[in-house]
Amino acid sequence: MPEFTSRRGLLFGAAAVSAGAVLTGCTSNESKDDDSSEDNKQAVADDKPGKEVTIGFAGPQADHGWLNAINDNAKERAKKYKDVTLEATEGSNDTAAQIGQVETLINKKVDVLVILPADGKALTQVGLKAMKAGIPVVNLDRIFASAQAYRCWIGGDNYGMGLNAGHYIGEKLKGKKNAKVIELAGLDNLELTKQRTKGFDDALKNYSNIEKVARQAAEFTVESGQSKMSQLLQAQKNFDALWNHDDDQGVGALRAIKQAGRDDFLMVGGAGALSAFEEIKQDRGVLKATVLYPPTMAASAIDLARALGQGKGISGMSEFEIPSSVTLYSAVVDKDNVDQYMSTGFK
């Protein structure tokens, strides 16, 4: 099969026209009717060494526990595969610097790119450039402005985070009359924060006995979490539950709560930090659960990139190609299942 057809022609715009037909054509011309299962196995990526793949990884600056975990998950996953070489850039939150880093990876002719953009809209053009050059892009979490800029998107479900946090709190308070809840959000200028709040509000609509009486935006940092939580505690003398969007800022929120001597409500966190898991496991404070936004998505992005580089699909699915998008589930972790998730907690 000509190189133009198998790579550039399929990737640019053929992210929209799935590569399945081509893969089927390449792998099944010699197949026999009674041997289709073997052909399917060959078309699915597994842990056995196969075609060597160089993956370029352009991640964020690790200035937050979750972002650091993204970088660690990608690098550790790549080490698992003998057929994968990872070309990782120095993480950056500066869009111009990150664009330059991705362009360097394009010039190196890596086989696949995994990009968590500092700004999805700002990096869309360099994603398009990679796709036009025949380099498939796995867009991690912060989405590009055009679906033509990536072959596959994988990320978390911000609306689902809020929805599941709201339902967990709702079920805990459904027998209480005139229940009151408050919300410690993240940065209000981010779409993800708006989605988390919308999901939370939509869930609470199912519980007529619950009213959200206060909301305060923090900045995803320990310091802001402590400061904003102190303000909420001073303004709200009586409430039954708190949802905090982010476990990093939750460290500060818990400090403020302990300093205020408050233990008269339940708290639900967000993201899945190790410190939150440990606090939940001890079950001695207000933090009773956290809703995941798993940084393991970066490890899965490497799996998807490897499958793309080898022209294969993924195990557990019938298709000969990877999906165009994967939205992760925001599971609720509490004392009943925290041991299961402890190894995924980030510092």
CATH architecture classification of the largest domain: 3-Layer(aba) Sandwich
Distance between the termini: 47 Å
Helix content: 40-55%
Structural class: alpha/beta
**Per CATH, what is the topology of the largest domain?**
Rossmann fold
Q: Helix count?
A: 13
Whole-angstrom Rg: 22 Å
Widest β-sheet, arrangement of strands: 2-1-3-4-5-11
Mean pLDDT: 88
Q: Count up the domains.
A: 2
| DSSP strand tally | 12
Helix and strand topology:
Blueprint: H1 3-11, H2 20-28, H3 36-42, E1 53-58, H4 65-80, E2 84-88, H5 95-107, E3 112-115, H6 124-132, E4 137-140, E5 152-155, H7 158-173, E6 179-185, H8 191-204, E7 210-217, H9 222-235, E8 241-244, H10 247-259, E9 266-271, H11 274-282, E10 287-292, H12 297-309, E11 325-327, E12 332-334, H13 338-341
Parallel strand pairs: 1-2, 1-3, 3-4, 4-5, 5-11, 6-7, 6-8, 8-9, 9-10
Antiparallel strand pairs: 10-12
Tell me about this structure.
The protein is built from 13 helices and twelve strands. With 347 residues, the protein is of the alpha/beta class. It has two domains: 3-154 and 296-316, Response regulator (Rossmann fold, 3-Layer(aba) Sandwich); 158-293 and 331-344, Rossmann fold, CATH 3.40.50. The longest helix has 16 residues, at 65-80. This is Putative D-ribose-binding protein.
